Structure formats: structure tokens, C-alpha cells
Amino acid sequence: QVQLVESGGGLVQPGGSLRLSCAASGSITDTNVMGWYRQAPGKERELVAGITRFGTTTYADSVKDRFTISRDNAKNMVYLQMNSLKPEDTAVYYCNARRVVSSWSRTDLGSWGQGTQVTVSS
To answer: CB under 8 Å to 65, separation ≥6 — which residues?
Structure first.
């Protein structure tokens, strides 16, 4: 199993910014595809953004023009820059690593971190 550790969450006011980080330890193939998912209380876990080893990205419509996912393969790190945050962005954010994309909506593939809380409130 790949070991994943998220950091960077916290409390921020609407319109503010946060940068999440995910440190991965695992084989090259087990971290081919990395993603950020989030889960709010009473809701299903949903994709926020994903990225392949070669830089191909995908975003949920709700964050497409506000969030940016990136990765540093040499450091085994994945990042999520979140700008113009809204109260509806409040959730626990999880890092995921898998071998293939398959379907971004699947949450039963690969490895997961323990999550980091993001709270957007005035």
C-alpha cells in the first residue's frame, strides 16, 4: 500500500486561499495517478481534481476556475491550490493514489490518506 499524508488544511474566510499538500511513499506505478477528493458531513465523497504522472488534469465543475492541482514527481508530492474559497468548499479533503484513472468517480481504487479539514466560514 502507498502511504499518503495530507497537510495544509485549516479555517479560512470566504474568498480566501489555502494550499494543500500530499506526501506519497510508494512505487512509481502505484502513484501514476493522483487525486484530491472531499467529503462533507452527510454527503458522498466526490472528486475535486486529478492529475496523471505526465500532467494531464481534470477538475470538478464546481472548482474548475478556482483550484489548481499540481505534482512534483521528484519529491513524490501533490498539491492543491485553492483560491476564492466558498462555504460550500467546507469538507475533509483526501489524497488518493492509483495505478490508472479508470473512472474518477470511483473511490474504491488505490490508497487514501487520513484527510485534512478545510473550513470556510465568516
So the answer is: none
> Cβ(27)–Cβ(17) under 8 Å?
no
Residue type for position 113: G
Answer whether 69's CB lies under 8 Å from 49's CB: yes
31-61 pLDDT tens trace? 999 999 999 999 999 999 999 999 999 999 9
Q: What per-residue confidence (pLDDT) applies to 45?
A: 97
Neighbours of 50 (CB within 10 A): 21
User: Judging by beta carbons within 10 Å of its beta carbon (0-12, 13-18, 19+), is residue 49 exposed, middle or buried?
Assistant: buried
Residue 61, C-alpha cell as written in the block: 465543475
Distance, in Å, from the CA atom of 104 to the CA atom of 100, rounded to the nearest integer, reads 10
Give the position of cell 479508470.
102
Compute CA 112 distance to the chain's CA centroid, rounded to the nearest angstrom: 10
Residue 68 confidence class, pLDDT cut points 50, 70, 90: very high
Question: For residue 58, how far is the Cα from the chain centroid?
Answer: 11
